[in-house]
Design goal:
It is a single chain. By secondary structure, the chain is an alpha/beta fold. It folds into two domains: 1-50, no CATH class; 64-219, 3-Layer(aba) Sandwich (Rossmann fold), CATH 3.40.50. Helices cover 47% and strands 9% of the residues. It has nine helices and six strands. It has helices spanning 20-32, 64-70, 86-93, 99-108, 118-131, 137-151, 161-173, 178-190, 205-214, and strands spanning 54-55, 82-84, 112-115, 154-157, 199-201, 217-219. Strands 1-4-3-2-5-6 form a six-stranded mixed sheet. Strand 5, helix 9 (205-214) and strand 6 form a beta-alpha-beta unit. Helix 5 runs antiparallel to helix 6 (137-151). The radius of gyration is 19 Å and the shape is globular.
């Protein structure tokens, strides 16, 4: 599946923007969705409609740390993308048993899609490891620094009413924690409610079970 971060509306190929009504509608849509009208095409093409639920990564290319972890060259482009739960991101930052397999997955496809709240969940997990004496204070500080660096190479699913409503439905359908329902809801929104179009990388058994029941392919190793 090819991902695009530009909103494209479903229109007939014969629907030309030269008509006054069409131009007015386009200007309104562009102002609402913060899309520059100067960059719009003269004619809308038949392509998949993607709402502005995905915030592109801040960096044009993968950050240097991301490249060092995966062996990916700076500027290397990949069209595929997977959704990463926070449970799968933690091994990228700390020395855990699943670190090698997660790095291999990341190397195969460095384009990472995450939920907006994932950095908070990462900070929470690292703080727990520090309290449990599994990581030192210096190790946690280093991991948090790496997380912020890597975040510049990630694409985020931003908060929205659609994410919230989907999370509410998921909580009634599956035995999930609130945070996990938001993760799965974000993945569904990213997939445009077509789970077969997006793979999830997750190490949480309960969330994996719910994701599979929703129709996602889940990668655990």
């Amino acid at each position: 599946m090819q991902w695009s971060f530009t909103t494209v509306m479903h229109r007939s190929p014969d629907w030309n923007v030269s008509s006054p009504l069409a131009a007015a509608l386009i200007d309104l849509l562009c102002s609402v969705r913060a899309v520059s009208s100067d960059r719009r095409p003269r004619r809308f093409l038949q392509q998949d409609f993607k709402a502005h639920s995905i915030r592109p990564c801040r960096e044009r290319h993968l950050c240097r740390l991301h490249c060092d972890l995966t062996g990916t060259r700076v500027g290397e482009a990949r069209s595929a993308m997977k959704f990463w739960d926070s449970s799968a991101v933690i091994p990228l930052l700390a020395d855990e048993p699943s670190r090698k397999s997660m790095l291999q997955l990341l190397q195969q496809d460095p384009q990472v899609l995450i939920w907006w709240g994932t950095p908070i969940e990462i900070a929470s997990a690292l703080a727990r490891l520090e309290r449990e004496k599994s990581l030192t204070a210096d190790e946690v500080s280093s991991a948090l620094s790496k997380s912020r660096q890597l975040a510049d190479s990630w694409h985020e699913i931003v908060p929205s009413d659609a994410v919230r409503r989907t999370a509410e439905r998921l909580l009634r359908a599956h035995p999930l924690r609130a945070a996990d329902s938001l993760q799965l809801a974000a993945a569904l929104i990213a997939a445009d409610h077509d789970p077969s179009s997006l793979e999830i990388v997750c190490l949480d058994a309960r969330l994996n079970s719910a994701a599979r029941r929703e129709g996602f392919a889940v990668l655990e190793s």
